Amino acid sequence: MMFRSIVVSLSLFATAEAWVTPTTSAATHSHAALASFESSSKPSSPTTTRTTSLSMADDNFDETRGGTYSIADQVKRFETAKKENNQRYLDIASVYNGGELSGKRILVTGGNRGLGLEITKEAVSNGATVLVLCRSSNDELEELVGKWNVYSGVDVTDTEAVEKALKKIKNDGGALDYVINNAGYFYEKKETILDNTLNFDEQLKQIDICGLGPLRVNAAAVHAGALSEGAKLVIVTSQAGSCEWRFTQNKDEGGDYGHHMSRAACNMAAVLSSEELKKKGYSVILLHPGFNRTEMTAKYKEIWDKEGAVDPSVGAKRVLYEAMKSSMETTGQFLNCEDGLRIPW
Ligand SMILES: NC(=O)c1ccc[n+]([C@@H]2O[C@H](COP(=O)([O-])OP(=O)(O)OC[C@H]3O[C@@H](n4cnc5c(N)ncnc54)[C@H](OP(=O)(O)O)[C@@H]3O)[C@@H](O)[C@H]2O)c1
């Protein structure tokens, strides 16, 4: 296949609102984004842009890489699924069978609310024993999994607390078949350079929670001997961690530095640990859970319908579906739970 250099214009002075995971602007500009990949070197504003080169298989350039990768533009992705009547995407229940979770021992971080709580409910309803690592517990959770299975007061940024909790989990029976790293944080305000809204403390906090958090938990689980043979280490990350997709989803706007950097760091830690832990027989998988209607995305409420946001109970099935499928063959992969396809780095 012929490769040539494509020049992509990146505006340094874009002002329009950008958004992260599913972007309104990404959505709006996605075709423009593709056009800019395809049509080479016309800068959108000659006085305010710089250019950079990307090497791509442009002659047949297809964002989906022939269907083997998911689509960066979230609106287009959702529209394509509807056009193709893709049941895997539109109705996860049509392919999902949670039976395999029966009798499994699953640790879920941030299982007290949002997607984590739904993952917990779904796994329990299929006969799994779910242990929850969280900062604060609640009655609903304790009724669901049993008070003794809630390890509360544990912040994933606190190495000592995480290690202590995993040792306790080991002493309480250990033998975790799955560790689902779901706890995450997305700073509410939009960060940009040009509006002078960068918040470095928040950036470090997000990197600590979303980047280091899963590494801390997984490492503590390994060291404590809390894993069963062939355990699956699952990391709920975000498509926001894909550098390549920033050219579409944050086109001409950038923004949300801390969150996106934290997920890129998360992805790097996962790939490194997938390589390191092969010899132990533990797989590591990175899952973008899709767009879920939770507190985290409430700020994007107005685009929930347009961009295919689902109830977190659906998101939970999507995550568990891919978690169950993960194996030593797929270790280190970064997948979109909406369609099961890979996301480029
Ligand atoms: N919703 C989406 O569309 C979407 C898209 C892409 C990725 N994700 C990822 O999916 C995961 C779940 O998201 P969500 O939508 O359910 O978010 P959410 O409703 O905001 O819930 C976040 C969960 O993470 C926990 N958490 C936050 N900081 C923590 C810390 N320092 N230590 C321990 N727990 C902490 C929260 O616990 P507290 O109750 O103690 O705050 C809560 O349980 C996150 O990792 C998120 O980044 C979500």
Automatic annotation (TrEMBL):
Keywords: Signal
Domain of life: Eukaryota
Keyword Membrane: no
GO molecular-function terms, A-Z: oxidoreductase activity, acting on the CH-OH group of donors, NAD or NADP as acceptor
Ranges for region Disordered: 36-59
Biased composition (Low complexity): 36-55
Name of the molecule in the record: Short-chain dehydrogenase
UniProt organism field: Nitzschia inconspicua
